[in-house]
């Protein structure tokens, strides 16, 4: 009986870990006030995090942070910001809980084409 209970608990734990989504920092420039979320647990399809900044007068300003759909270009565990094809925007996506917590200090010269994310 004890062994069956342990097996059941182990099975539940594994299922929970497999279905639990990634946890990312969250920010939306449109949200103002105390009710704004700062962390988001992502859907199981969204296993990456992202950050999007815009450069204003030479300084990066955060626009959006959150969950990103699977993208083969997002294999690093920390954000490496890339200039977007259009405009003064900086984008990064990464793999790991809270990996999008940094601000643009390291910027790659490669551009990142627009991709489908959330």
TrEMBL record:
Which is one Gene Ontology cellular component term of this protein?
membrane
The protein's UniProt keywords, in alphabetical order, are: Membrane, Receptor, Signal, Transferase
First and last residue of the signal peptide: 1-21
Q: What are the Activin types I and II receptor domain coordinates in residue numbering?
A: 29-102
Compartments (UniProt record) = Membrane
Q: Which EC class is the enzyme in?
A: transferase
What Enzyme Commission number(s) appear in the record? 2.7.11.30
Per its record, what are the GO molecular function terms? Answer: transmembrane receptor protein serine/threonine kinase activity
The protein's name in its UniProt record: Activin receptor type-2A
Please report the organism this UniProt entry assigns to the protein: Desmophyllum pertusum
The primary gene name is ACVR2A_2
């Amino acid at each position: 009986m004890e062994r069956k209970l342990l097996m059941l608990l182990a099975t539940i734990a594994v299922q929970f870990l497999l279905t639990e989504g990634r946890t990312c920092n969250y920010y939306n420039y449109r949200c103002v006030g105390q009710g704004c979320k700062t962390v988001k647990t992502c859907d199981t399809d969204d296993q990456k995090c992202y950050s999007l900044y815009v450069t204003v007068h030479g300084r990066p300003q955060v626009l959006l942070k959150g969950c990103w759909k699977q993208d083969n270009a997002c294999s690093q565990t920390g954000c490496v910001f890339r200039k977007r094809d259009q405009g003064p925007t900086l984008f990064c996506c990464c793999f790991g809980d809270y990996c999008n917590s940094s601000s643009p200090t390291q910027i790659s010269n490669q551009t990142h084409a627009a991709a489908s994310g959330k």
